[in-house]
Structure prediction request, 600 residues.
Amino acid sequence: MAVHSSAKTSQQNASLAPSNTILEARGLTKSFKGFVAVDKVDLKVQFGGIHALIGPNGAGKTTVFNLLTRFIQPTAGQILVFGKDITRRSAYAVARRGLVRSFQISATFPHLSVFENLKIAIQRPLVSPTRFWQSSRSLDDLKDKANHFLELVELKKFANVSAGELPYGHKRALELATTLAADPKVMLLDEPTQGLGIEEVDHITQLIKRFSKDRTVLMVEHNMRMVAAIADRISVLRYGQIIAEGSYQEVSKNPQVIEAYLGRKAKKGDPS
Amino acid sequence: MRTTWIFLALIAVVGAIAPFSGLYPLFLMKCMALAIFAIAFNFFTGYVGLLSIGHAAFYGMGAYFGGYAVKNYGITTEMALLIGMATGAVLGLLFGLLAIRRRGIYFAMITLALAQMVYFFCVQAPFTGAEDGLQQIPRGKLFGLIDLSDDLSMYYFTLALLLLALLVAQYLVSAPFGQVLKAIRDNEPRAVSLGYDVQRYKLIAFVLSAALAGGAGSLKAMILSLAGLPDAHWTNSGAVILMCLLGGLGTALGPVVGAVMVVLLETELAGVGVVEIGTFRLDLSTKVPIVIGFIFMVTVLLFRKGIVGEIQAALENFRRRRLEKSAT
Prediction:
């Protein structure tokens, strides 16, 4: 539960006081040529634990993600990270503040090896384009760290394989490891289990659960079984608006959510 | 990396004995200056993945500025090269600031348009000598000590520069900087999400490439004692694209192989003259662009990765098959 985890972590994060809100959207709006994809969304993500953003197809979940990480420009509203306004910052600057996202379609660097993929994420604070002469030897110390992440997602034996040649499930695991290797304060995961088999879903779910212990995860997810299992807090989005928020129990009893989400699912003729 | 060293040594050895095999040093030097130009182009387009059709502007202006300085102020050879590089870098920064945020065809068109503006500047400006070009450019003295007016000394100096350019380009590509460039080329949004300022990376890669192209231009001006409008013309940008595509874009040695091929084809075809087969009569010396265009089409259709690229892919395949065999 969000309450539980924020109590647990409040001591370590006295600097975050007065509130434990790590990421906040105020009246976030995005319209595409008149179509309002995201409509005055207010969202508060508390420090620690897993916050899930769910909703039927086309509800605007990914657009919210793109807005929060500054990949697209909001039409109106504000985004705050640790209480600081980042609405006008560029995407890479937001990432440097600790908001690291993943993508719906597995995002790796296909022509780099698995090891190099992780290294790219780890080395970022140590490299700069204005020091283009910097040697790769100066980053040798990062090898252990990269190997640590490889072991975490059980990809050690694929270290020298091009990421593009990995099977899909491994690609997703690599993407997750890369996101984590960037040392984020908030991980934004866009459908991390999409397209995976049942065993792989379990694997990824456990990884996310483990990662979320001392950091914050905000994820978009369709797999309700997974959301029920690991999400501490859930926000439900419909037609670009937040219609409910709370624990899985609270949200799943909300009549509006049943109508919008589960009701629609039942209409498709899903007997179970 | 090891194969690159072997090939560098090979180029050094072949380069060292080439002038005694009956080939003219002047011809070889022209090849090498163009090879450096191609290395510069390949460093940007091959590793960043944006097509520049403006590199002739850097090469041409490098030739004019470097040549003008060495002719009128009697500076040393390496200073002239540095002036050429600085000219390329400044122009590259200007081009880059305007174009680097664009992608695909838009980037290509903006660089082309800017290069055309530079070309018309070269036509109008008094110091370039317009149609006549800048003539009788001396080669100066290397470090103020070694006279390079002798073709053979200039030849070995040029060979050393070619090897240096190859080494530097290879170093940058395998350094963290080049790794990030490859990552950006592979998946730009992902690189952004990991906190990389991708525009800055691309811009600096473009400026480095432009600087090297400018250096190649000033080297060419001193080799042939001439800097002229053809150096800055858009067809020169086209030629360098052709070289890299033929040799293999994004490979270490592709630009060198491509440059040698294009120059060889141009001179050899011009030398063949009239071909007569029965009543069919063809003057090849005037149809060089058609023949090169035909070879280019065949390459693009059959050897997508260019000559060096295809050889590399074949070797890679062979290695993998052998590994799989030994595994079973």
Q: What stands out?
A: Confidence is low (pLDDT under 50) at residues 1-18, 265-272 of chain A. Chain A touches chain B at residues 69, 71, 91-92, 95-96, 100-103, 107-112, 116, 119-121, 123-125, 127, 129-136, 138-139, 178, 182 (CB under 8 Å). Residues 168-181 of chain A form the longest helix (14 residues).
